[in-house]
Write a structure and sequence with these properties.
Helix content is about 20%, strand content about 20%. The chain is α+β, with helices and mostly antiparallel strands and about 120 residues long. A four-stranded antiparallel β-sheet has the order 1-4-2-3, sandwiched between helices.
């Protein structure tokens, strides 16, 4: 059996109530997320339930796209996101393994691809 352990998140940002700064759906700290490195990310609701897992070669632009894009699987659920965890993982193979593992182990609510638990 393969044993996979998720790393500790490199960055965790939370939705702000009534943010005074420029924000996207209440998130003001996107600047803490690397713009140039690859990795995977996990969106949680306010009950700490996993909503969505994604991966990217450049993390920050990809996360922002989920809040702006009209084709994102999260487009109807953006208001639910309360916490974003970001994991920097440069290896494309490792990113894919972590993403697939997290989707299925923690039963991500809104992932459509790579779902084996249904």
């Amino acid at each position: 059996m393969i044993n996979i352990t998720l790393p500790t998140p490199d960055v965790t940002i939370f939705k702000q109530d009534n943010p005074q700064e420029s924000n996207i759906y209440g998130f003001t700290q996107f600047h803490l997320i690397t713009r140039e490195l690859g990795g995977f990310f996990m969106f949680y609701n306010d009950k700490d339930e996993l909503l969505f897992v994604g991966k990217a070669r450049k993390i920050r632009p990809r996360i922002k796209k989920h809040f702006e894009d009209s084709v994102s699987p999260m487009k109807k659920h953006r208001d639910e996101v309360h916490k974003i965890e970001v994991y920097v993982v440069e290896s494309a193979v490792d990113r894919d393994i972590y993403e697939t593992y997290a989707i299925n182990e923690f039963k991500a609510k809104y992932n459509e691809d790579k779902v084996y638990y249904k």
